[in-house]
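Repro case for the chain-ordering regression, as requested:
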Amino acid sequence: MGALLLALVFVASLAGFCALSLAMDRHSEDVFGRGSTPGPWRRWLQLGGTVLLCVSLGASLQAAGSAIGWVLWLGALTAAALATVGLLGCAPRRFHWIASAAAAVALLGLLVCLLLAASGT
Amino acid sequence: MKEGFRQSMAWLHTWSGLLVGWVLFMVFAAGTATYFKDEITFWMKPELHAVTPNAAPQAKAAEGAVAFLQQRAADAPRWFITLPTEREPSTSVLYLKPPPPAGAAPVERRRRFDQALLDPATGQAVTAPRETRGGEFFYRLHFDLHYMPAIWARWIVGFCAMFMLVAIFSGIVTHRRIFKDFFTFRPKKGQRSWLDAHNVTAVLALPYHAMITYTGLVTLMFMYMPWAPQAAYKDHGGTEAFFAEAFPGGGRTQFKASGTKAPLAPIAPMVAAASSHWNGAPVGRITVHFPNDANAVVSIARAGTQRLSSDQPSMQFNGVTGAQIGTFGDVPKAAAETRGVLYGLHIGRFADPLLRALFFLSGLAGCLMVATGLLLWAVKERQKFAKTLKQGGRIGFGLRLVDGLNLGAIAGLPMAMAAFFWANRLLPLDVADRGEAEIGWFFTVWGAAAALGLLRPTLRMWQAQLALGALLFVLLPVLNAFTGPAPLTVSLRSGPSAVAGFDLVAIALGLGLAGATWLVERKRRKAVSRQPAGTPPGLAASGQGS
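-- result from build under test --
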């Protein structure tokens, strides 16, 4: 469960930052071409991104305890944000696929963690 | 003319960052390396790579260490025993040599200690490794500098750190669009790209930068700001009394030798008692004050994991009877705990390998932040000379100086660090004062790089130094393969993992420097192709502008 939680910390924060970046006009243009805006999706991307960052925080506190967990979370946020900037620069065409995959893996990981916690292991 | 708040902060940010930037770059780089101090030291002692210490319970390791010290240093005034951990599988013993007889020349602080690594199961010294300062050199360098009294160095570094703190907070005010530009990096756009890189490395690791700078000042706060305890304890025993009260169980001045011999009580029951007092948590460091004296005291501190604070609870035992004297820090007071947490955050001893890697990553971001900030100043300043340069004029003295210092610091330091590792493996084993000789290589290479940079701050020089640094780093694993028993092919498969990690990080850093070399090459080509025929290319390409 420990390794799973740690993976969730990173994947969820990466997916969260990807969603937050796609909610911005500039990066929407980077990914989907000139002139495209997130439009009605903007709110949902912002909400989803925030929720994913909160999931990351929760997993971090669960994995490393309530003191060191905060440090781990901030470190993971830095790494994930740097990765997001790198992806936007290097692979803008595939960015939304990577982001979607990260979000899917994060949600799946969250589900597995919750199930494991519920079954008491 | 009235300036806005933001403009005045921009001015402050520029100058507080520039004036101390070169020192800060070194402090950041050496401090970042310090996260892997133990691993660096281990890599620099290849004699230990083939030795796998046998694991043993803590009490047995402590007994072995005491037996070893009784043989080697029975009359030492103090022993320090650090029990094995996951990062350091050997028992490490350190002892203070007996003071020199009255009238003899005083010994430098560092030379008054002697140390050894022991196999936890047998208590025998593992193969004597080569003499080296190892990662300890970078640790000391980042606040004690070198070739000067430590106290001056700490004031200099503290002064620079204070400037850094000012630069960080004025930078937040200056940066108009923190959230809008959060993910923005636009390459190949000249000054724009430098600013983006500066912003990204600063903002994305901002919690780290603010924390590390502030807590860095906190680590030496009693030196920088001693006045509160001085005033409050003026009539109550002075600062000594303050420290005894603030850090119970930590002092050593309260212990006095009696001069009467008495055998030391067995150590194993004390270790067991301490561990069971902490609900089975492992023991970290054991200090024996005046072993084999009637006034001997054994102080045992808990291992420093799972806790942010650097202050660990400790217990003291009578060294002759083995009776418990007291427990300290089980319920830390709020103020002491606050300081302990801030101190602990700075040194990050609680961090497991993953968290340590994240600290390292943020530290690298800090290096890049300082470096891009310095380069940005030069790029902006160069634009003021655009017209003069077009007419064949020269740039001003200030810019030339900054160009040279930037080169020496940013390109020269990585090269010097790599040279330090090369010296560790290439110097003959029997060189007198070998540890200092390695450090000599570090400063020779850095000094040469800085001198060449100041003489010829050209793009070609940037390229040459970055390329050499890249080569030295990328080839470190090759050097290790030829001069040590654990090449990457072996260490990746069967350990030691610290050696594999070092080699891989060296390759990554080397590739990063190679990437920087490539960027300079592209810029130089552009500068040359833009230049009218007849001008020597070296002149045309001088500096790293736009």
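Ordering looks correct now. Residues 497-530 of chain B form the longest helix (34 residues).
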